[in-house]
Write a structure and sequence with these properties.
The complex is a heterodimer of chains A (225) and B (416). Chain A has seven helices and ten strands. Chain A has 225 residues and is an alpha/beta fold. Chain B folds into two domains: 2-52 and 274-415, no CATH class; 57-77 and 86-269, no CATH class. Chain B is built from 17 helices and ten strands. In chain B, strand 2 (113-128) and strand 3 form a beta hairpin. Classes of the chains: A alpha/beta (225), B alpha+beta (416). The complex binds adenosine-5'-diphosphate (ADP) and magnesium ion.
């Protein structure tokens, strides 16, 4: 099995308001097509780790590889391009752009990538929305949807450029148990059927237990399981 | 282009705010167009009036009186005697240009000169019945003179050539003719300061549009004036010169002065007060326009800052999805440029309409200048300049907020 994500000896410090060693000697790897929940108490550094892995935060020591490509030390422009092509994002507060329709929200990262024509992108976006049973809402303004619906659109958007890896930070934190179930089922399907690596922070231990493997964090370290 | 798509959406989502920012630019550009069209119109009117009454170069003898010669030296033959004469009376001098025909020949061969008009100017009294008015006459070769000042277009009655077809004809300024209540065919008697007098028949009336000229000046054939003054055929006092390029007048005037040692005035020096007020108007136009555009610029700056503050989350989400800092700058700068471009375009239309309206407003009646409407010119260069201004200002105003937006750290925003 090939490795999708590899982390070597990552350490991170916050300097404000005081010196704080938030991540200590983090090393692990995730294979392609694995569905891996990250759990741990609030404040243990899960979000911080996810921002490092997603290349949004570049202020750390150690090395991060995605698809065997070393991302540490790359320029901001290269990292933006890499994110666009290889990383899908899902946040706790869905974060769709309110002026755009559901369809346009899904299309935007692909339009940015610019590999396909507008028409092809539109077809792909409809296809992704259909996978998440959101195609009926394609032409609605995204701000008109419920939280669970928005989160499904956000997942469709994360999928649009066929990324290697999807990272999600408490994607179900604001959802009821039915919607939470739907989201995790989607994730599992994507991992097992489409071979997309999924790394998701969650507080939902029941769902975490049903995963292939769980990464548990405590006080900025990974606990051996 | 996906960046422009996003920019457009942001603008459309805040139509009111976009419109207000645009109107700021519109107002600034419209005022710029109106002011510059009017101010340059006034300048051009002044320059035209000036040029229709002032030759490119005017050569004349400005020695009015001669105190240099005294007969005291002849009287007291002793060379060792120091003689001081208080309040000497001036010697009678001729105001004419000596060696006129030689100078005229020289000037006519000069390739930078297109036309030379010698004339004889003198003060006279105009007598018509009991009415007596002080003025002056120019004895001219009317063909040369009318080529220099385009007299043909200034004639209200008659033609310049009529002077040649009449024995002892006179072409009179309109104000003067009105005061004397004279019309075509009427006779008028002129009296010189020396006391000689002669009668002339009115053959034409001109109006240059400057009260001080139209109320005092008349044209008569040069030979008639020489006869009236009892001078010979070579006696002239002034030479008017038209140049190929009137911008070169000051240097050419200096050259002619050195060569002939007669006073040579170029049109710019002769009208330096008009030139100065032209500069004042130019400066005023630019100061006011730049002020208005700066205010519009600050308006855009404010609105861009507000937009960016409202869009922090969106910026973070776009960056997380792979939009680079350059993309963010493009998204917001293009909004600012859109506001500027369309604001400026509307400003040009409004500016044109206002200028056009002003050009149709009758100019208050005035004895000194003859103007039917407010002078306004329509110069495409001004409109082009306005458009460039209208795009550069928002570019500068939008650049800083856009760069600030591109530096937003998405992690800080996403953490909430
Ligand atoms: N920008 C920051 N500056 C200083 N400390 C921070 C900053 N962001 C997070 N922290 C601290 O780092 C620790 C880890 O935070 P976080 O990664 O958000 O935890 P989790 O997501 O596991 O709840 C917390 O104690 C938090 O207070
Ligand atoms: Mg967190």
């Amino acid at each position: 099995m090939s490795v999708a994500l590899k982390v070597e000896n990552v350490n991170k410090y916050f300097h404000e308001p005081e010196e704080f060693h938030v991540l200590s000697d983090i090393s692990f790897s995730v294979n392609k097509g694995e569905f891996v929940p990250v759990i741990g108490k609030s404040g243990c550094g899960k979000s911080t780790l996810l921002y490092l892995l997603s290349t949004l935060d570049t202020d750390y020591k150690g090395k991060i590889f995605i698809n065997d490509q070393l991302l540490t030390g790359e320029s901001q422009n290269n990292l933006a391009r890499f994110r666009n092509e290889n990383i899908g994002f899902v946040f706790q507060f869905h974060f769709l752009l309110p002026e755009f329709t559901v369809l346009e929200n899904v299309m935007l990262p692909a339009l940015k990538l610019g590999k396909l024509s507008r028409k092809e992108i539109e077809e792909q976006a409809i296809d992704k929305l259909r996978q998440l049973q959101m195609d009926a809402f394609a032409h609605k303004l995204s701000s008109r949807l419920s939280g669970g619906q928005q989160q499904r659109v956000a997942i469709a958007r994360a999928l649009i450029n066929d990324p290697t890896i999807i990272m999600a930070d408490e994607p179900t934190g604001n959802l009821d148990s039915i919607n939470t179930g739907i989201v995790f089922d989607i994730f599992k399907n994507l991992a097992h059927e489409k071979g997309i690596t999924i790394l998701t922070v969650t507080h939902d231990l029941d769902f975490a237990k049903s995963a292939d493997r769980v990464i548990e964090m405590a006080d900025g370290r990974i606990k051996d399981s | 282009m996906v960046d422009t798509l996003i920019a457009k959406r942001h603008l459309m989502a805040n139509k009111k705010q976009t419109l207000v920012a645009m109107l700021g630019v519109t107002f600034g550009i419209a005022m710029f167009i109106l002011m510059i069209s009017f101010m340059i119109g006034v300048n051009q009117f002044m320059e035209n009036t000036m040029l229709s009454s002032t030759p490119d170069i005017h050569i004349y003898n400005d020695i009015k009186t001669d105190y240099s010669v005294s007969i005291a030296g002849d009287y007291f033959k002793d060379k060792n005697l120091l003689v001081s004469v208080r309040h000497p009376k001036p010697k009678q001098v001729n105001l004419n240009i000596k060696n006129a025909s030689g100078i005229l020949n020289n000037l006519r061969q000069d390739p930078t000169i297109t036309r030379v008009s010698p004339f004889l100017s003198t003060q006279v009294f105009y007598n018509y019945g009991p009415v007596q008015i002080n003025g002056y006459i120019n004895g001219v070769n009317i063909i040369d003179e009318s080529k220099i000042f385009d007299l043909r277009s200034k004639m209200t009655i008659g033609q310049p050539e009529d002077l040649l077809n009449t024995d002892k004809g006179i072409i009179m300024g309109r104000g003067l003719a009105n005061k004397l209540n004279l019309g075509i065919g009427d006779m008028v008697t002129l009296t010189t300061p020396a006391g000689t007098s002669m009668s002339f028949r009115v053959v034409g009336i001109f109006a240059i549009g400057i009260g001080t000229i139209d109320d005092t000046r008349s044209y008569i054939n040069l030979a008639n004036v020489q006869q009236l003054m009892g001078k010979d055929r070579s006696y002239i006092t002034d030479i008017n010169i038209k140049l190929v390029d009137n911008k070169l007048a000051p240097s050419k005037a200096g050259e002619l002065y050195k060569k002939y040692n007669y006073k040579s005035d170029d049109w710019q020096t002769a009208n330096s007060s008009v030139m100065a007020s032209n500069i004042v108007r130019d400066v005023l136009t630019y100061v006011v326009s730049i002020t208005l555009l700066t205010v519009a610029g600050f308006g855009i700056y404010n609105i861009m800052n507000m937009t960016i503050k409202n869009k922090m989350k969106d910026i973070a989400i776009l960056k997380a999805q792979g939009f680079s800092g350059h993309d963010i700058v493009r998204i917001f700068l293009s909004q600012s440029l859109f506001i500027g471009f369309f604001g400026a375009l509307m400003g040009e239309v409004l500016g044109f309409l206002l200028s056009y309206a002003l050009s149709r407003v009758p100019f208050p009646h005035n004895d000194f200048i003859s103007l039917k409407y407010f002078p306004v010119i329509f110069n495409p260069a001004h409109y082009l300049f306005g458009l460039v201004f209208g795009v550069v200002t928002p570019f500068i105003a939008g650049l800083m907020p856009s760069i600030r937006a591109s530096r937003i750290d998405p992690v800080v925003i996403l953490r909430g």
